[in-house]
Design brief:
The complex is a heterodimer of chains A (260) and B (356). Chain A has 260 residues and is of the alpha/beta class. Chain A has helices at 42-49, 72-76, 94-99, 109-122, 138-152, 175-190, 202-208, 226-229, 232-239, and strands at residues 2-13, 16-27, 31-35, 57-62, 65-66, 79-82, 163-167, 194-198, 211-216, 219-224, 243-247, 254-258. Chain A contains nine helices and twelve strands. In chain A, the strands form three sheets. Chain A has a six-stranded mixed beta sheet with strand order 6-7-8-3-9-10, sandwiched between helices. In chain B, the strands form two sheets. Chain B has a two-stranded antiparallel ribbon with strand order 1-2. A two-stranded antiparallel sheet of chain B has the order 3-4. Classes of the chains: A alpha/beta (260), B mainly alpha (356).
Chain lengths: 260, 356
């Protein structure tokens, strides 16, 4: 089932085109990685998809209804967004920050507490639950915010086909936590969620994404499985690097090795 | 070096400290209720004439008919204490809301221009309404001028900061600064053309005072203040989410623009009414929520009621101090709150800098 449909969306800001006629569909069960050089429009794509950037042309459908069809709360029950950075300067206890993800839901305190506990455990941040948010390191803050958006779309009452938009969620994470997060996202996708995420690490995208979208100068240059997208020609054309594409010995997914 | 049991104790204390940053909300709430009662008792018993507690209780239940003490209490000190508590509560909760709205723990309700507008309104009333200053429902023309001036300033600031995309909090802050400066210069002009008597009245009004307290004024403060104090906590969860950022709040299902409009309106009504009835009383809106946040945490669900109660405790105490410090002369209470508040504010600033 299509969770998110972008139909020829075009975004302009002060006459500069940020996104040029981009169309793509994100289905339930898909983990779509958006890659591209700096300033390509990856974050703009995510912001446009969730309604933060006004469209000049085109349409966005969430579960086949336009964004404006939903009440704010209704939309928030099925779509969570994590931007590149969040400035929270107030000393909340981390558990309370994570629990904010339950604001759009009225499932009751008991279910909310159970979901928060589950997500804290999945992200391995139970030890941060009682700490003050303002005292955490960058990577710890990022994991707390990830927990918040996961809690928001964790799904209860059997409804799991929720949408998660993440802008560079691995930027602050170490290798182990990046892989832990990608595995967790794959498990959410397996039960019906759809994830669209901006990634900078080709190999993370190649190993975990079901599909990869390549953006450059606001245009969608390629869209397909990692094997289809990651080619030596594309790496040269889009990222201006010489690369060799190898195969992971265990999974046969592509492995990008920069040779320059 | 510590012996084993002692080091164990230290360890436990450190862990305790890490686990529980804030005092439990219900503990704070009950202690605050108790303190509020104490503050009101002090406010009615202390003054130029001290009234012992035994006599106080007789006066309150009305056992002793029309004695001097009971007259002082029921006609002068009780309405004054109640007005102080109401105004304090309004300033405390408005401060907490403003700091949340601006995502800045050092913001103050006067930032949206309401105080400066009210001062100008009052000055205009003093200069142009002449010496009559007739009373309408227990309200002087000055109070009405202050309320209208405050309301006009807020509406102007809000309009300036709002366009098709919604209200920009940053623009509101800057527009508030500009409107405050503009109202200030008009106010200076009023003082320039005022005669001596008017000038004294303006400057006295600006310092803030509760000496005009009466039951009709308490009733007006209650009629506008209590609904505001009861309505604001309904936006506590929205305010929490808005601390993450406005887009983030929207993605959590909050109708951000509607919430902002309601909050500005309620804060303007609260501050407008308190300025109209008690003049400008500085630092309560800034310091009270700040202290409560240190004690109870930034969660607005507990911070808003706690700030209201703390304001209701603090202002009657400050007013009592203002009445007794050089009795029988009264010091304007705005001066007392500033003298207590400013050093504390500077202390907080330095603390914040040290923490980085």
């Amino acid at each position: 089932m299509s969770l998110l449909k972008l139909q020829q969306i075009h975004v302009e800001l002060h006459t500069a085109a940020l996104l040029k006629d981009i169309s793509l569909v994100l289905n339930s069960g898909e983990l779509l990685a958006v890659i591209g050089p700096n300033g390509a429009g990856k974050s703009s794509l995510l912001k446009a998809a969730c309604g933060d950037l006004p469209l000049s042309r085109g349409a966005i459908l969430v579960k086949n209804n336009s964004l404006s069809y939903y009440r704010a709360e209704e939309l928030a029950q099925q779509l969570a967004v994590l931007p590149q950075s969040i400035d929270l300067d107030f000393p909340f206890v981390c558990r309370d920050v994570v629990a904010m993800g339950r604001i759009p839901h009225s499932t009751g305190a008991a279910i909310d507490a159970r979901i928060v506990a589950e997500v804290l455990q999945e992200l391995d941040i139970e030890h941060l639950a009682q700490r003050l948010y303002t005292e955490l390191s960058g990577g710890e803050k990022q994991r707390v915010q990830l927990a918040r958006v996961l809690v928001q779309i964790w799904g209860s009452e059997g409804q799991q086909d929720n949408l998660l938009l993440l802008d560079e969620p691995c930027a602050w994470l170490d290798v182990a936590h990046s892989h832990q997060l990608m595995k967790l996202l794959r498990r959410r996708v397996a039960v019906g969620a759809g994830v669209m995420m901006v990634l900078h690490d080709f190999n993370l995208a190649a190993a975990y994404a079901t599909r990869v979208a390549v953006i450059k100068s606001g245009e969608l240059l390629a869209l397909g499985t990692p094997t289809e997208v990651f080619t030596e020609a594309l790496m040269r054309e889009v990222f201006s690097v010489s690369a060799r594409v190898l195969r992971q010995p265990d999974s046969d997914s592509p492995m990008i090795c920069i040779t320059e | 070096m510590l012996s084993r049991p002692e080091s164990k104790l230290v360890e436990v204390l450190i862990i305790r400290h890490q686990a529980a940053h804030y005092v439990a909300a219900n503990k704070v709430f009950w202690s605050q209720l108790l303190l509020l009662l104490l503050a009101l008792l002090l406010a009615v018993s202390l003054g130029a004439i001290n009234i012992p507690l035994a006599e106080l209780s007789r006066a309150v239940v009305g056992a002793e008919q029309a004695s001097q003490s009971s007259l002082i209490i029921t006609h002068i000190r009780l309405p004054r204490a109640l007005l102080a508590a109401l105004v304090g509560a309004l300033l405390g909760i408005s401060g907490a809301v403003t700091q949340g709205l601006f995502r800045n723990a050092l913001a103050d309700p006067s930032l949206i221009g309401v105080t400066a507008g009210a001062v100008l309104g009052a000055s205009l009333a003093i200069v142009f309404a002449g010496t009559g200053l007739s009373l309408v429902m227990g309200l002087s023309v000055v109070s009405i001028g202050a309320f209208l001036g405050g309301a006009a300033a807020v509406i102007l600031v809000y309009r300036l900061a709002t366009d098709a995309h919604g209200t920009s909090v940053t623009t509101m802050l800057l527009a508030g600064i500009a409107i405050t400066a503009l109202a200030g210069s008009f106010g200076s002009f009023m003082e320039f053309i005022a005669d001596n008597e008017m000038l004294r009245r303006i400057s006295y009004w600006k310092m803030g005072g509760l000496d005009g307290a009466s039951y009709p004024r308490v009733a007006i403060a209650g009629a506008i203040g209590l609904p505001v104090v009861l309505l604001l906590p309904r936006y506590a969860v929205a305010l929490n989410s808005m601390l993450l950022g406005e887009s983030e709040a929207r993605h959590l299902g909050i109708a951000v623009n509607r919430v902002k409009r309601m909050l500005v309106l309620l804060v303007a009504a609260a501050v407008g009414v308190s300025v109209a009835l008690a003049g400008t009383i500085s630092f309560i809106g800034l310091i009270v929520p700040h202290i409560m946040r240190l004690i109870i945490g930034p969660d607005h669900r507990v911070l808003l009621p706690a700030s209201a109660l703390a304001g209701a405790i603090f202002l009657p105490l400050a007013d009592t101090l203002a009445r007794v410090v050089i009795a029988p002369t009264e010091v304007p209470v705005g001066m007392v709150t500033a003298v207590l508040g400013a050093p504390f504010f500077l202390f907080l600033l330095r603390q914040g800098r040290q923490r980085g």
